[in-house]
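Run log, item B.
One chain of 517 residues. Sequence copied directly from the ordering sheet:
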Amino acid sequence: MAGKTRELIVTLINVRNLGVTLNAPLFSELNLVVNAGDRIGLVAANGRGKSTLLRCIAGTMEPNEGDITRARGLTVGHVAQDAPPALLDTPFHAAVLEALPKEQRTSGGWRVDVALQALEVPDELWQRPLQQLSGGWLRLALLARVLVTEPDVLLLDEPTNHLDLAKIGRLEAWLNALPREMPVVIASHDRAFLDAATNRTLFLRPERSLLFALPYTPARAAIDEADASDERSFQRDMKAVRQLRQQAAKLHNLGVNSGSDLLLSKTRQLKQRAERLEDSAKPAHAERSAGTIKLANRDTHAKVLVRLDDAMIAAPDGRPLFRTGQRFICRGDRIALLGPNGAGKTRFVAALRQAIEGKQTAADGIKATESLVTGYCDQALADLADADTPIRMLTRRFEVGDQRARGLLAGAGLSIEMQGRPIGRLSGGQKARLGMLVLRLTQPNFYLLDEPTNHLDIDGQEALEEELMAQQASCLLVSHDRRFVREVANRFWVIAARKLIEVDGPEQFFASAHTGS
């Protein structure tokens, strides 16, 4: 046959008119076709239905409306965000083996070995209970449990949560090495990962979800333009409605004054046209806010905020990790601290915090200007006690009355009910926004941010980026979020060969972390 041969499109999953309502509509009239070879990124704010949709596709949850058909004999592998509590005492290897059907476990141990080797799990972790693993290795254990079942379709729910850059690189390489025809659906807030791992993007919305045959970044530009076009069209329609009603009012007055039935009839026709146009006009999509993120920037006249005089950064047991050399942190610097896990990034952040707060345990060689006030955010949000409540914590730590505190919490996305709930029962996204509110009320002039985007959705990440830039905040940040580092930082420090080195940009480090070199 002359010319190019057309590839056969094989549909494996067909989602038709799907709708789920939990308190409020998460999505409705959703249509999605999953074909062989699709790599679909699923994008929505925290709590807006991504995990729910994946559960529906996996068959573990029934939607309120619509239906899902799967190709005959299709097996779906679903990697959820959290490990089943009953598994936490189980060693890594055994937990993966248990994912196999009972009749395959005796002879299928080799499958587990292959899966763990494919994910580069060190031998010393194979017999370690899941609850003793880091968050990153626990994520890969959940992936391995699905991998050994050899599914036809893979569903991944926030797969990069808690992964460092090296593990994200392994995950991207592993996904790229999958059979080309195997479809993958990925719910994620990691913009760089979505760009690297997907070829289609579904923006999940309560109404009119939109699918683009593009990775995240170009798809985001396309949906922004579509929303802007919808808004322009809506404004044109509403302008026409106002003009029709103005004409109707004039004709009505003329008709009444002249006693003309014809004019009064035309008045009714204009009003009816205005009503039909108003009913058909659809406003542009407006994302329901998950809570605003606002930062503050207390004045400081000091140009040099922190001086580093070849300080030694050590592990908790006193083992030397690296020396800083002679360095300065100046007003307006937004420094990204880069380095492999275990290099000492978090220890350096802790050493800076101790020096700024004037603690006697501060390391020699770190001197902070006296006017510095630190805004500190760590990835575990450890400053937020699980047993405390948001309202009690806020009124105790800051000079705000009960009414003001409730308004601030509501603005951060915490309802009255959530404000009295133990912080430990809040979602990761809610805790992250509460942490950002605490940062704002601290009124810092220097931010120490250790993985600040860990639990933020894309809107939250972008809001934090915009605030850091708008406030001209001085900060030192540690992040595995490549997009966040690229957007925010204007200086880059890398821990390498037990030294702190300044580089022109992050790309060489990102590339080396991904390849493991």
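Observations after the first pass:
- The domain at 304-515 is CATH 3.40.50.300 (Rossmann fold).
- The chain has 17 helices and 20 strands.
Flagged for discussion on Thursday.
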